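INFO batch 0412 | record 1 of 1 | parsing
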Amino acid sequence: MIKLLFVCHGNICRSPMAEFYMKDLVRKNGLESRFLIESAATSDEECWNGHGNPVYPPAREELKKHGIGTPDNELGVTGKRARQMTRADYERYDLLIGMDGENRRNMLRICGGDPDGKISLLLDYTERPGSVADPWYTGDFISTWQDVRDGCDALLEYLTVNKWHQADRRRVTPQEGD
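INFO prediction complete | emitting tokens
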């Protein structure tokens, strides 16, 4: 099983959008049993007294526009609550995928480094590396959706078509995999 943790600042917009789009994507490809997909925050700003805030309503609405978080395709959107990433997550997950450089820096701080090469950015898997648009500041959930979609599509291709191996966390070329 490949264990993915999507990470953003508050775990109410970008990382839950990535979590639930990726869950939908692997379900549509018949790969549900091969993945554990969750999300977390680098900060505790959206967690109060041990209880996290739900997915931000405009993010939920954007997911619903694409058939995710609806009664016939809930995937856990309604019950999702923000949680802060911990150092233990580094051992629990195969890949920890941030949304921007600040997330990556905070992930490295929380985890005490990245000796196994598990930490990356979502758009690193695309042909246009960079940051996933942050709708908290722009209100532009459409651009965020497009970045999340492109990143998750490329990530799934990387993990399946390129025969990613958990044991050594490396990309195997077609010649090696045959």
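INFO post-check: The chain has one domain: 2-177.
INFO record closed
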